[in-house]
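Quick one, tokens below. Sequence please?
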């Protein structure tokens, strides 16, 4: 199950992984926006695409109750947040504790929330990246599973940095979903992530790959 609000590029990465034989099947895609292009991506591949707009709901609890009912109708083993632009209530998060993942465009715990690329540049960071984590009630604060780390170039702007990070998001998010589907990844009773039976003391790290010709882009 994948939840989106926008174009769905990480959803497409999941679809591509599924089509390559990954050990998971996307049961459905849900968006809170009817104009989200990710819905079209799902339809093109025969994946059920649902819209549950948040407009008209009196509060987050009411919306999340209906969202929970919609999700549970598909009985997914894993819920993936892929650009779902909603702050979820603690009750909703608790429902899927240990089986809900999120991808965030920063090296968490740095730069939680929005505008991560601009903030990283303004802070003078030399490295940036993306993180996959189990979802908890703390915004972008759940246990980390995997990160991709890249160097920030001297001439970098927020747009170019975002594009480079996004390419690595498309690598690490399907990896995490694959691990979970195989039973290799789980959230322990101690609230910490385990991979292949061993506690992840720090997130699994993917380093930036140099250009094939060994030269800078």
């Amino acid at each position: 199950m994948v939840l989106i609000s926008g174009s769905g590029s990480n959803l497409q990465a999941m679809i591509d992984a599924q089509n390559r034989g990954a050990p998971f099947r996307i049961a459905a895609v849900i968006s809170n926006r009817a104009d989200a292009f990710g819905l079209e991506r799902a339809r093109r591949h025969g994946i059920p695409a649902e819209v549950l707009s948040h407009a008209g709901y009196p509060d987050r609890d009411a919306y999340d109750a209906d969202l929970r009912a919609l999700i549970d109708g598909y009985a997914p083993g894993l819920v993936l947040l892929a650009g779902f632009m909603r702050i979820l209530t603690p009750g909703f998060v608790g429902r899927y504790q240990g089986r809900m993942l999120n991808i965030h465009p920063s090296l968490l715990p740095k730069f939680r929330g929005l505008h991560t690329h601009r903030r990283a540049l303004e802070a003078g960071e030399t490295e940036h990246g993306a993180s996959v984590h189990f979802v908890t009630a703390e915004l972008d604060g759940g246990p980390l599973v995997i990160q991709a780390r890249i160097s920030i170039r001297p001439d970098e702007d927020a747009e170019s940095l975002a594009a480079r990070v996004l390419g690595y998001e498309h690598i690490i998010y399907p990896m995490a979903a694959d691990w979970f589907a195989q039973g290799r990844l789980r959230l322990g009773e101690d609230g910490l992530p385990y991979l292949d039976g061993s506690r992840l003391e720090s997130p699994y790290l993917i380093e930036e790959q140099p250009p094939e010709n060994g030269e800078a882009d």
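The chain has a mean pLDDT of 96. The CA atoms of residues 1 and 26 lie 5 Å apart.
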